Amino acid sequence: MQTKDIAALVTGGGSGLGEATARALAADGARVAILDRNMDAARAVAQDIGALAIDCDVTSADAAEAALARAAEAHGPARILVNCAGVGPAQKILGRKGLMPLDDFRKVVEINLVGSFNMLRLFVAGAADLAPLASGERGVVVNTASVAAYDGQIGQTAYAASKGGVVGLTLPAARELASMAIRVVTIAPGLFGTPMLRALPQDAQDSLSASVPFPARLGEPSEYADLVRYILSAEMLNGEVIRLDGALRMAPR
């Protein structure tokens, strides 16, 4: 898919992987809508790249539907959805502070998995009726999982379960949406230099970097965005989960 003049939605586009993706798509000529709860960050990025910032709770059917309607009114129906909104708190099932509250587990799954599916289904509702592009496709969805889906660490039960769900969603969604000419691909990033990791002390960042076989560093959000761009251009890439992790396999702790 060529992205010039194509409407694109990026959830979590106010920072981190989402911000890098929004910037890359805008640089390629896409009409980008940034969907985020942090409106100060979203507006700052949107103003810088000529995008639209929209407040959106990805877990809410009504709020997400309203956000997509506003984006479509401004940019036309979207053909690209990149789901980057997510949370990653660490919490043990039974730790020093006691038993993990069920609502804490539920919140992570609700945002990371249910939110991704919610945005996907609403995106499909609009994209399925669009005329096919020259490539024959109508749209592309890129979801964000994590290497934690495969080798989650102690304290990552909620996060790993939610991202494992995103991995499991990929193939059946791609198979179902193939008849509508909509592709679904998932990226499973390793350790990336998002604001959360960059806020750690330098010695902690160095330790994390050393755990990556090659290159022995934190990934740059722009590298995630570059993979999104490639996925959009590679029409045969569908129903796949791509690890972007420098051959990292995380230890138990």
Would you mind describing this structure in some detail?
- The protein has 253 residues and is an alpha/beta fold.
- The protein has one domain: NAD(P)-binding Rossmann-like Domain (Rossmann fold, 3-Layer(aba) Sandwich).
- Helices cover 45% and strands 16% of the residues.
- It contains nine helices and nine strands.
- It has helices spanning 16-27, 39-49, 61-75, 102-127, 148-151, 157-177, 195-198, 202-210, 221-233, and strands at residues 7-11, 31-36, 52-55, 80-83, 94-95, 98-99, 139-144, 182-189, 241-244.
- The chain has a seven-stranded parallel sheet, sandwiched between helices. A two-stranded antiparallel sheet has the order 5-6.
- The relative contact order is 0.15.
- Belongs to the short-chain dehydrogenases/reductases (SDR) family.
- GO terms for molecular function: oxidoreductase activity.
Helix content: 40-55%
CATH class: Alpha Beta
Q: Give the count of structural domains.
A: 1
CATH architecture: 3-Layer(aba) Sandwich
Strand content: 15-25%
- Compute the CA-based radius of gyration: 18 Å
Quick one: overall form? globular
The whole-number mean of residue pLDDT values reads 96
Largest sheet: 7 strands, parallel
By CATH, the superfamily comes out as NAD(P)-binding Rossmann-like Domain
Placed side by side, the strands forming the largest sheet appear as 3-2-1-4-7-8-9
The helix-strand sequence is EHEHEHEEEHEHHEHHHE
Number of helical segments with 4 or more residues? 9
Low-confidence stretches: none
Quaternary structure state of the chains depicted = single chain
Distance between the termini: 40 Å
